[in-house]
């Protein structure tokens, strides 16, 4: 089996969007958005599927990372440099493991994109697209920025989209437990309040951590 | 981070990607075809008589790559390279055109940039999410980014269209051998000693925390954050929550450069080198490594792919990359389910043997012209 067969299969699913209007420019724009949206939705659903298939594994490696990081923060608070170095090095090993497992997870949200680009070349490879100052460009030049924008807008809409809202919540529930400690947690309650007040007033540039890690994709 | 800043960052990313997207400048491939005058059915990248890449084989190999990513980690990128070079036969195909031909070099560059698309995009996306979640040590991030941009631009600029498959194989092999030796060192008593000591110290501290029933005490506002005590071009001494640390400020710039250059040359993401670098050499806390490495991986990868594809018009076979990504996904599902049946030590020895075999084969094939391990 070669790529050609895949593109022939994809053709009727993709090309209709490019033919929605008589205007070639508008049709091509609608088509690009359609291909990007299909790639985004399939990718996000696949990523969720892969995550839940191995949810125990992701929970374990995440917990390992968070627990050792928290221990390292506590060691720093106790000014125990040896313990800090030890816990931090183990936390970093756990982070490495987590990082590579997530790389494979993110691949599940991206696999549709190369097929989309390949199909665009199959369909429009012989069309000359001209961009001012750059000259002739291929369909991928136009598709990739559109895909990134669509995916970004989709990530903003996710908390309100029925299926994706549930996925988000389930990922959160799966990785629930001790939260990753911030270094501000080392401060006394009073100092912490003072720090937060200063931060809110914008007088103090935070040198520490602002947000908690989000385990799922963008 | 404010929403408006996030949007700006996203727009900047889109602008950056505009540069890395492939323009229709197929002149380089067309020139190579015109020079080599290959004949036959269009195959790999539409080259007449080029190998008919079977995406099922690509898919099956990628399952193995995904399995490695989810069980061992970094070695997955190397195996993706082995797939392009050996499993799909692109290495032999490039070699068949002779060392000095354009076709040899264009296929070699295509292998490099395909590896980077395959591993780098997922690494960058993963890093970006860590960046959103974690913190960025801005000066260190900038130092790494300067090094990364320099390295990932210089290597394609200097080597694209100039490196023959044999030379690439030789260097790729040397790197795999080095990785194999490093993996082996980790299994030796000396390599294990450091890890064991860290484990014991962590356990002892955990025990003391449990006994004392408190979380390491509190610090006052005066001690919090980073306080620089001394800063020269070669020494930066600072206290972090009252604990003293020091590092050489030149290290991140040089490290960022070397890692990005190596990643770009070999066609890998670079995250596997950056994460241990930031933790062992720069001694950063884990929470800060996430955000800081993100910036360097993202910038290095975008820059490298843009340099290969836009500046040097290197083409890739998109269908193959898509099939490989599907394989990686399946491998990553199977990985955690099967790896629990294989002890960590056995897994490590398997990869040492594999790294030594692949390393020896590629190094000798690249530099001597024949392999000293079978098949010769």
Automatic annotation (TrEMBL), chain A:
Keywords: Membrane, Transmembrane, Transmembrane helix. It comes from the Bacteria. Residues 196-218 are annotated as: Disordered. The chain crosses the membrane at residues 24-53, 99-121, 133-154. It comes from Pseudodesulfovibrio methanolicus. This is Uncharacterized protein. Residues 196-206 have a biased composition (Basic residues).
Automatic annotation (TrEMBL), chain B:
The chain crosses the membrane at residues 61-90, 136-155, 167-185, 250-275, 287-310, 316-334, 346-364. It is a multi-pass membrane protein. It comes from the Bacteria. It is found in: Cell membrane; Membrane. Keywords: Cell membrane, Membrane, Signal, Transmembrane, Transmembrane helix. Its main location: membrane. The keyword Transmembrane helix applies. Residues 1-26 form the signal peptide. The keyword Membrane applies. InterPro entries: TM_pro_TauE-like, TSUP/Inactive_protease-like. PANTHER family: MEMBRANE TRANSPORTER PROTEIN MJ0441-RELATED, MEMBRANE TRANSPORTER PROTEIN YJNA-RELATED. Belongs to the 4-toluene sulfonate uptake permease (TSUP) (TC 2.A.102) family. This is Probable membrane transporter protein. The lineage of its organism: Bacteria, Pseudomonadati, Thermodesulfobacteriota, Desulfovibrionia, Desulfovibrionales.
